[in-house]
Design brief:
It is a single chain. The protein has 129 residues and is mostly helical. It is built from four helices and no strands. The longest helix is centred in the C-terminal third of the chain and has 34 residues, at 92-125.
Amino acid sequence: MNKKPSTKKGLIRIWNAFVYSLNGLRFAITQETSFKQEIGIYIVLLVVLFFLPLPFIFKCLLFFANTIVLIVEIINSAIESIVDMTSPEYHELAGKGKDLGSAAVLISIVLAIILWLCAIYVMINKDIC
């Protein structure tokens, strides 16, 4: 069994938290297939977003919605990792936990899609606020 790292204080704690966060992000980018796919789409949409003739606030909303998808995917991956560690055999509650995490990802993707459809509608109809 691994020993828990000692607790740091002050700036060292903040620095360590930053490094742990980068480690988690690196893991998501290199090991999580869904996150890899979503980060690819995210980058493409970010470039597209830069060139769209939309009001700044609308661009901010789209950026926020796209970023929420990545955040929720990371949280879902964390839930799945913990469930897999604590419940290697199938358990109904473990399945529910994974399904709920997946549902959160789905809702975040639907939110992003709806906002992108609204953006397309605004551009086609030149109905900018």
